[in-house]
## 1
Amino acid sequence: MKNDAFIITELRGGIAWVTINRPDKLNALSAAVVTELREKVTELEANDEVRVIVLRGAGKAFSVGYDIAEGIAKGVSSAEDWHNALTRNVDLSMAVWACTKPTIAAVDGWCLAGACELAMACDMIVASDRSQFGEPEIRFGSGPVTLLMPFFIGQKKANELLLTGDVVSAEAAEAMGLINHVVPATELEETVDKLAKKIAMTPAVTLRLTKLALTRAYEAMGLRQAVTANLDVVSILNSAYSPEKAEFGERVKSHGLREALNWRDSRYGSL
């Protein structure tokens, strides 16, 4: 096992278990985490000993997505600033998407916003029954960064989730086709391990070319073009002023991120 600053990697018989290791921040995707994880994906893809890559988070979350507090602290505000910051996240998700090795997201707990996009970029998602999925960015004046959801669950359901910011249970995510399997938390690692081992039995060249065929099929439907076009739009969206966004930012600075998130969600009540 190799323990980096934010990424822990363990290779078990051809299966690379990659853990986002920032549990005190619910594995929020800071610039450093994104950079390290992007480098790790490249490294594992080039490693002939690796047949399957499993991505997971330490503690009680897969990840809550983009590190909002870091962005506010750094004063990211202009469309250009946002484009530069969000490009890192898109590059990570699309590197996972295009990885020539099969990838599995093992989700236990929160899987939100950019982290939900990162999980969707994996070939499969297996989740514990206590997991939650969603892209609530619209609730504080942002939007989806790596626009993958419409390609995986269809236009109408994607519209509902992205326009409301609703967060759904693992069971609901499975029913709409967002994830593959839901299992008890105590069985998550064993279930993912069995799935990864089954995939790893197939010859590497067969896996690589089958993945290429699947990736090209989705990209022929416009997936990559949609992601690229959306990056420009969401950069402008994130730089635009709204009273709600300004209030959210002030609450983060004065009371902390948790209180700001509670305020954000309380505005929607039980709707």
## 2
Amino acid sequence: MTGVTPENARPTHQRLALGISYNGLPFNGWQSQADGNTVQDHLEKALAAFTTGERPRVLCAGRTDAGVHGLMQVVHFDTPFERSESSWIRGSNRFLPETIAVQWARHVPETFHARASATKRRYAYILCASAVRPTTDLGRVGWIHQSVDVEAMAEAAHTLTGTHDFSSFRAAQCQSHTPIKTLAPIQVRARGAYVRVDFEANAFLHHMIRNIMGCLVDIGLGRQPPQWLESVLAARSRQAASPTFSADGLYFLGPTYAPAFDLPDHCDNVDSLPL
């Protein structure tokens, strides 16, 4: 008779949620692609190597573009394998590249869905406004070679608070069913040459934050007055807004979920951001 250990597969499936962090620079974004060099591809291959089973399909809270960093992406997947939560963390990380790490693992009910169950999503953009290009921060901050008026940026950002049609900040390839989103007050603060802009909404359109950042930078540089952003929003046309800003300084801080799921809403590497 073949022995069965706690590490072997059981006949029933269970759903698992993972918190994932990654440096987006080496990858072609989150979503699986034919070349295999995406965060999703590396994670699924690592999970398959750890369980020595079939490659699972993971679903994420929010897809990120090439160059965008994830501090607490959340995924879920169904698996017939039973492991302790700490074992999922250690075992998966063993097979992941150094620029991706599982931060936490939780068993969740089948009603949980990483994307559909999320009530909010949080991002931060780090901008370096300095005459000299970043070196140690290369790829980790957006860069402009002039100082900016942070107060003007904050004044303009206030215009976007609430529920609006954000078509002016929507990429042409966006697959969202509606351009109407609800945005919490955008937080803009600075320390020296570094400016941090925090975004929180029920959901975001493709390139929405980077397109808003393009407008805020133009306002910070004095190219447009703060009141201009209100007319951009009202236009509901991508042509009314500034060009899409760099992906380098954009960080997905993670989603939030109902307390009943008892999932972490913070992990240590979030504290690595300035300000």
## 3
Amino acid sequence: MSAARRPAPALAGLIEQYYGYRLHGYAPGVHRGLPSRHVTFIVSIGSPIDIAAQTDPRQAPGSYRCVLSGLQASPALIAHDGNQEGVGIELTPVGFRTLFARPARELWNTTVELDDVVSHVGSELWERLQVTPNWADRFAVCDEILTRLLRPDLPEVAPELDHAWDLLVSTGGTTTVSDISSATGWSRQHLTRQFTDEFGLGPKLAARVVRFERARRMLQAVPPHISIAQVAAVCGFYDQAHLTNEFTYLAGCTPAQWLRSEELPSFQYDDAHLG
């Protein structure tokens, strides 16, 4: 069972959507948390989220009630007993700064409890969602609590970086650093330096992550007669080998291996399904 909804207007542009998931009766196993264009922000309902292997192997495994992870270029391994429930919040890296008054760079390749970033907010969010019975009301709780974090005096992401991120996402990661440099009016060197300082990774790697995520979503959504090579072509890869190499680098396995091993469903919504 799953559901999704856009956030309140005040949070538009910071959060793309909320999604709720409830999975029961699957075999226990390990799920790959893969790189994406969003800062990972998930509130568990019931059992905590058990990260068996972090994206940075130097960080110890941990269990989280309200998990927040920065952008990443490698997978996390999430252990589960076949039953999972929670609310995912698709937070943009620009939204991360707006809500938490710090750059997404601070959580690059790192996982924390939300309370470690904003005291008591994660605890309140988790506690209220445990006693809220339906998705619509759960999403309303997220709106209420997260809107409280908005303050006009907090620093915002530079408009050039906001535009650079929008270009990466809107082109599916196929734009070049030179194109972004021209669009922002910054030199390549200045763009790369400022982009990395804000988001934790450079624009070239960010484009790879965005393009990978588009291909990964498409691989899950297309019918079986659509080949990996066709997905590679649509998403801007040179060929299937190029996609396979990128998938292996970012996911730790080939597309075919991932499709065979990923038993839990993903949650993808287009505009027609969002309120």
## 4
Amino acid sequence: MALKDITLGQYFPGNSLLHRLDPRTKILAVVLYIVALFLAKHFFTYAIMFCVLALSISLSHVPLKSLFRGMKPVVFILIFTAVLNLFYTPGEHVLFHFWILTVTMEGVVNASFMVIRILMLIAGTFLLTYTTSPILLTDGLESLLGPLKKIKVPVHELSMMMSIALRFIPTLIEETDKIMSAQRARGADFESGNLLQRAKSLIPLLVPLFISAFRRADELAVAMECRCYHGGEGRTKMKVLHLSKVDYITLIVCVLYLAAFITVNILLPAAIVR
């Protein structure tokens, strides 16, 4: 897996329906999507979620290749999760047994559901960052978390930190790739040996990476100070957020979808989960 395969935090400019939606609408829609995803207990409800995700991807005009490429870093997590659920889920219908390993029908279903859930969760959250610029994402989070200001929660600072973290993920990945190429040119080997040897070989990579990250953070702090940045109080915005008719319709559809989804999930006979 190449470092360039990590697409978390990247923004794909466009003029699709999802790009034009207010960031607050997209954040709330993703939250409702995640709630519905964790409430799903049947193959039919997962099929509904897949159709919603496929429709969202088609409306976003984000290349499927980029979406699949972003899934590569989580392949190990998917395999690890699937193996745990496959061998350690108790059940009545035993399919295979060897020593301390037992595979049951319930374990197969549970592992399948868990892998599908993680993939759909990652794809849905990736769509948010792919179709929303970091600045708009910051403004949307700050607006949604605005009521917390009454209890002295530093909403603007938290939103800014999250936005900067997302913004610098692609930059740090590119910097890591450059450092690895420079180290390989000097004879470093990051791929041979056992797990412990590979971990030790990463030490010469981490030191310059941390130095570069601190330097970039210092440059950003100086740039913000030169522009008289003093927090969110009294600041004006170049792009003021406005909810359009499409945003209201989208929110209403999402709420109705969640209500219908919960109803279907209750009425259908429970499948074997967990």
